[in-house]
Amino acid sequence: MATKTTEPNPYERLQIVQNQDGTISRLLKVPQTPASTDPNLPALSKDVPLDQSKSTWMRLYLPRKALDSPSSSSKLPLILNFHGGGFILFSAASSNIHTFYSNLAVELSALFVSVEYRLAPEHRLPAAYDDAMDAIHWIKSAAGDDDWLRNYADFSNCFLMGTSAGSNIAYHAGLRFAAESRSQRFSPVKIKGLILHQPFFGGTRRTGSELRSVNDPMLPLSVIDLMWELALPIGADQDHEYCNPKVGGGSEVLKLVGLLGWRVFVGGSEGDPLVDRQKEFVKLLEEKGVEVVSCFTEGGFHGVEFFEPLKAKRLYVAITSFMSS
Questions:
Q1: Residue 94 annotated among the catalytic residues of the structure
Q2: What pLDDT is recorded for position 3?
Q3: Which of 63, 192, 276, 301 is the most buried (most CB within 10 A)?
Q4: Is the pLDDT of residue 2 over 50?
């Protein structure tokens, strides 16, 4: 008789406790790293407020080498980024996230803006999407006021980027930007594309990679389901548009994304439980007329680039090639 596999308890795996008022207690003490303008660092960083009423803010990263050549001819691509964590965990100041994006700013030679968005379930989706749009509007309004943006950012070369759940946020913020661009001007901000690293999508129909990864050590199926349960509007299932980009045949705004000439990078790992959904997403974009560059590496796991420097370096190279082509 086959032994039934017991799925891990997602609350224990995530080290969270559900409270009676619908909030969660996060028991895992995640190390934090403060911003620093120490010129001896490869990338300088500083925090700026976004919306104090929502306790949102942003961490900006500037490669040290940019200080040596602040001329208009050498201005840097501007990347607006959203961290991962299943919509419910981590911060732009979490040490592993800070280190990863500091390195990314240096490797891509880009001015990086990492958004501290509101977390679920205290603030369910679309709160994070609202915060993303707030960040885009801040960049538009602060273009001439913030010294880093004014001196170093190339506003004609902007990208929205995210990792895991952050990629989901970047995608939906991109859809909103594209839709709103028909009725309002975002000048001087001009988005050239989306950079989606291991995007976090779902659906009620299980994919092959999900079924093969019920007890995945990094992202088991029970954890995926709990993250969506806590993040989506109350009563919604995983075929909600926030979760499943294929629902209803996909957003009609994607056709506009294609007409705007945006390009989309989708990067993933074959060992990620979400890889089948990511490949389905690539196919959807292509069907809607969006130019896609996909890069799926052998093996790995969800978030592998945060743990394996060689994999991270390969990701940097792939993104650099995408941005410069």
A1: no
A2: 47
A3: 63
A4: no
pTM of the model: 0.96
pLDDT band for position 68 (50/70/90)?
confident
Per DSSP, what are the bridge partners of residue 299? none
As given in the structure block, the two tokens for residue 228 are 């969506």
Type of residue at 147: D
**Residue 297, helix vs strand vs coil:** strand
Active site residue 272: yes
For position 236, what pLDDT does the model report? 98
Average pLDDT, rounded, for the chain:
95
Catalytic residue among 83, 123, 240, 302, which? 302
How many CA atoms does the CB half-sphere of 96 hold within 13 Å?
A: 16
pLDDT band at residue 6 using 50, 70 and 90 as cut-offs: confident
Cα gap 131→116, rounded to integer Å? 8
At 26 the three-state DSSP class reads strand
* 302 labelled catalytic: yes
CA dihedral 164, 167, 168, 171 (to 10 degrees): -170
Task: Choose, from 131, 134, 146, 272, the residue flagged as catalytic.
Answer: 272
Rounded average pLDDT over 31-54: 97
Q: Is 22 left (phi over 0), alpha (psi -120 to 50) or beta?
A: left
* Catalytic one of 164, 167, 213, 222: 164
311, burial (CB in 10 Å: exposed 0-12, middle 13-18, buried 19+): middle
Q: Are strands 43-51 and 16-18 parallel, antiparallel or unpaired?
A: unpaired
Q: How far apart are CA 83 and CA 215, in angstroms?
A: 24
Contact 170, 178 (CB under 8 A): no
Token output for 212:
């093969």
Task: Say if residues 261 and 174 touch (Cβ distance below 8 Å).
Answer: no
Tell me if 282 sits within 8 A of 294, measured CB to CB: yes
Contact 128, 89 (CB under 8 A): no
- Determine the Cα–Cα distance for residues 166 and 160; give it in Å rounded to an integer: 10
